[in-house]
Design a protein that fits this description.
This protein has a two-stranded antiparallel ribbon. The chain has a two-stranded antiparallel sheet with strand order 3-4. A two-stranded antiparallel ribbon has the order 5-6. It is flat and about 40 Å long. The protein is mainly beta. The protein has strands at residues 2-3, 8-9, 21-22, 25-26, 29-32, 41-44. Strand 3 (21-22) and strand 4 form a beta hairpin. Bound molecules: calcium ion. Calcium ion binds at residues 33-35, 37, 39, 41. Calcium ion (CA) binds at residues 33-35, 37, 39, 41.
Length: 52
């Protein structure tokens, strides 16, 4: 559900800014407030499964 200011609208197409999983595989994405500004930060870990 998305709050449009006065009501809630259903939107099945909304998704986060980055995928947490792709094809069911964990992409190493986490959320934590790293710089202590009160807003959550995205952390993307390096996958051990991908070759450099
Ligand atoms: Ca932050």
């Amino acid at each position: 559900m998305i709050n449009n200011g006065s009501d809630w609208t259903r939107n099945d197409y909304w998704s986060g800014p980055l995928p947490f999983t792709v094809d069911g595989k964990d992409k190493g994405l986490r959320i934590a407030d790293l710089n202590n500004d009160g807003f959550p930060d995205f952390i993307r870990g390096k996958s051990g499964l991908e070759k450099a």
